[in-house]
């Protein structure tokens, strides 16, 4: 008989615990909506400040936002016949300087699908002429790459760099001249 009363008290204790858990669950279920945001109003996603800053660059003076996307070099042949198509140009920052736009970024140079290295650049865009002037600052592979001086016309829709030319930067190792175009 003592065995049966032990079981009964265990069952009674289990019932009390189950009732307490059910009560706490009901209370949480009733109060939780008061602590959650109102889902009837859409909540805008939060972006890291660095990403939001590059996306919110105003298109002043008719200038496109150069920092959106990467520019793929579609045609890039130097005077020795080397084709650098497939290389990319990525701008990381853009600043309005009043009568012109300044951007900074890098070229990721490739030759025959082999990566040669990166060239850090600064550029100036003139909205009046739609000309982009890029100057190489340094490369991460100076044995193969020399900083260059580049120019191109930005298409009216801001998605292509046309009629591009490149040359040498004064004071740097002499590179081979060439032409280029890009799109994004």
Poorly predicted sequence stretches spanning 5 or more consecutive residues: 39-47, 50-59
- Residue fraction in strands: 35-45%
Distance between the termini: 85 Å
Apparent shape: elongated
Largest beta-sheet details? 8 strands, antiparallel, barrel
Number of helices: 2
Q: Helix content range of the residues, please?
A: 10-25%
Which topology of the largest domain does CATH recognise? Lipocalin
What strand order characterises the main sheet? 1-2-3-4-5-6-7-8
Mean pLDDT: 80
Radius of gyration based on Cα positions = 31 Å
Q: What is the H/E order?
A: HHEEEEEEEE
Question: What is the total domain count?
Answer: 2
The level-1 CATH class of the largest domain: Mainly Beta
CATH architecture grouping of the largest domain: Beta Barrel
Provide the structure class.
Answer: alpha+beta
Write down how many β-strands occur, each being a DSSP E stretch of 2 or more residues.
8
Provide a descriptive summary of the structure in words.
- Mean pLDDT is 80; it is low at 39-47 and 50-59.
- An 8-stranded antiparallel beta barrel has the order 1-2-3-4-5-6-7-8.
- The relative contact order is 0.13.
- The chain has helices at 2-35, 49-55; strands at 71-78, 88-96, 101-111, 114-126, 131-139, 148-154, 160-168, 178-183.
- The chain is α+β, with helices and mostly antiparallel strands and 184 residues long.
- It folds into 2 domains: 1-43; 49-183, Lipocalin.
- It has 2 helices and 8 strands; from the N terminus they run H-H-E-E-E-E-E-E-E-E.
